[in-house]
Amino acid sequence: MNQELELNIKEKISHLKVIDTISKVAELVDVKVYAVGGFVRDIILNRERNDLDILVIGNGTDFAKNVADGLGITNVSYFKNFGTAHFDYQGMNVEFVGARKESYDRNTRKPIVEDGTFDEDISRRDFTINTLAISLNKNEFGKLTDKYDGLSDIKNKRIKTPLNPLKTFDDDPLRIMRAFRFASQLNFNVDESIVKAAYEMRNRLSIVSQERTTDEFLKILTSPKPSVGLKLLFDSGVLEIVFPEIAIMAGVDQRKDYHHKDVFLHTLQVVDNISKETENVWLRFAALVHDIAKPPTKKFVEGIGWTFHGHEDLGARMMKKIFHRMKLPLHQLDYIQKLVRLHLRPIALAKEEVTDSAIRRFVVNAGEDLEDLIVLCRADITSKNPIKVEKYLGNYERVMQKVRDVKERDQLREFQSPVRGEEIMQICNLKPSRKVGEIKTAIEEAILDGKIGNNYEEAFKYLIEIKDQFLEN
Ligand code: ATP
Ligand code: MG
Asked: Are residue 278 and residue 226 in the same domain, yes or no?
């Protein structure tokens, strides 16, 4: 049944120089070698990738050295303690690992590692979809080993652990994040047992470094439809731990006839909307947090209903602490704060009677991020009523038109007469004085009024024509 697949795989990998070299070295030093993990999974899924994971049944670093020598690569990173090595070759990140057996200390996610067999190595892997191996040895090149039925889980789009998920997550709680990240990246379902185990083991995430947790979180946000991973984080109670401010956005209060939209569900939709427009993970992040201060500002006002006054300012202010806690790159803080703080401004500016100076202030505040802000505002429209959506989009279009108009007017204001002050002084025999300015303005007005063209010749001729009127008095 796998024959066709194996042929297909062979076709996809046999032309790769690095694979060829690995096969040759394996023959020479007589060890068993496999392509494993994400590389195999993604080949089967027809996904582009530039990571190649190589499993060596033996010493991974020595083997890597031989392959690097064979390819003429000198820049190899060795991690002798872990028995791993990697190098870049033709845009591919090639990672070697010696087969290992792992046992765990409960206080750290770093395992005690010993040399192991192929079976031991494969069984320590996180999900069945990552347990497939392709032999790279000449005598069985392209042969697929599938100990945990990973192939059918790939076909059925299912994330499952090879062992009991409680043990898998207890050993290394980062796998909780990885499960949801893979689900989001691949648009797979996670097995029910994974959500349950994640719920039970969620406090174990405390032994995982913040950097790694955040890295997985950002990978979820980078995925095609981030709500897949974010929902799983929420359903398993993990979001309360990794991003509590987002988790508490869930829920709706009802008072009298007033209820407000579930802010969490609204936010998920905004994040998915914006992800269709941009790959920029920070713009996506801004979408995730734009309403983050709605829960702490929520107030029920008699006769009006629910209000969230000042949530944009408080939200922006909340960001600093969150950035520090989550170890997010601080150079993105200003950008996120700006988008959160300004996310309501375009709505206010859509009103008819807005002044040029209000628009100008907005342009200055938003600066180079104005386009991104509008992308966020458009994504923020989650109404199911197409007439309303149309109306809101139209509002933003009007604001942008006003922005363009004001910019154009301002540009005209900056424009200068082609005949410069120096020359006016010479021809009119004037010293630097107010009169020089008046003549110059008269030329500019003539151009703006369309009386003369915006060029030197016509401006010069016009100057000669009008200069006496100015010089007489
Ligand atoms: P990606 O597309 O993100 O590179 P990947 O599946 O290649 O996905 P890596 O983190 O590069 O993931 O790891 C390579 C392989 O090593 C995985 O496919 C998996 O088999 C194994 N692995 C990685 N991290 C873990 C872990 N924390 N626990 C168990 N196995 C892991
Ligand atoms: Mg990888």
From this structure: no
Same domain, 145 and 14: yes
Protein residue with its CA nearest to atom 8 in ligand 1: 38
Does ligand 1 come within 6 angstroms of the Cβ of 172? Answer: yes
Handedness of CA 264, 267, 271, 273 (dihedral sign): positive
Question: Do the Cβ atoms of 58 and 31 come closer than 8 Å?
Answer: yes
d(CA 38, ligand 1 centre) in Å: 6
Q: Are residues 45 and 148 in the same domain?
A: yes
Q: What CATH number did the domain enclosing 95 receive?
A: 3.30.460.10
CA 4 / ligand 2 centre spacing (Å): 25
- Ligand at shortest distance from the CA of 84: 1
Q: Which residue has the tokens 């956005």?
A: 249
| Domain shared by 38 and 108, yes or no | yes
Name the residue at shortest CA distance from atom 27 of ligand 1: 175
Last residue of a domain, one of 129, 154, 179: 154
Instruction: Name the residue of 97, 130, 159 to mutate for ligand 1: max ligand atoms within 8 A of Cβ.
Output: 130
Q: How far is the CA of 93 from the centre of ligand 2 (A)?
A: 9
Q: Which atom of ligand 1 is nearest to the CA of 53?
A: 14
d(CA 72, CA 111): 33
pLDDT of residue 306: 82
CA–CA gap between residue 57 and residue 39 (Å, rounded) = 18
pTM to 2 decimals?
0.86
Residue 394: inside a domain: yes
Q: Are residues 340 and 440 in the same domain?
A: no
Beta bridge partners of 102: 113
Domain boundary at 154, 189, 211, which? Answer: 154
Residue indicated by tokens 């209820």: 259
Question: Are residues 388 and 452 both part of a single domain?
Answer: no
Contact 372, 339 (CB under 8 A): yes
Ligand 1 pocket mutation pick from 126, 132, 147, 207 by most atoms within 8 angstroms of CB = 126
Number of domains present in the structure of the chain: 4
Q: Per-residue pLDDT tens for 400-433?
A: 999 998 888 877 777 778 899 999 999 999 999 9
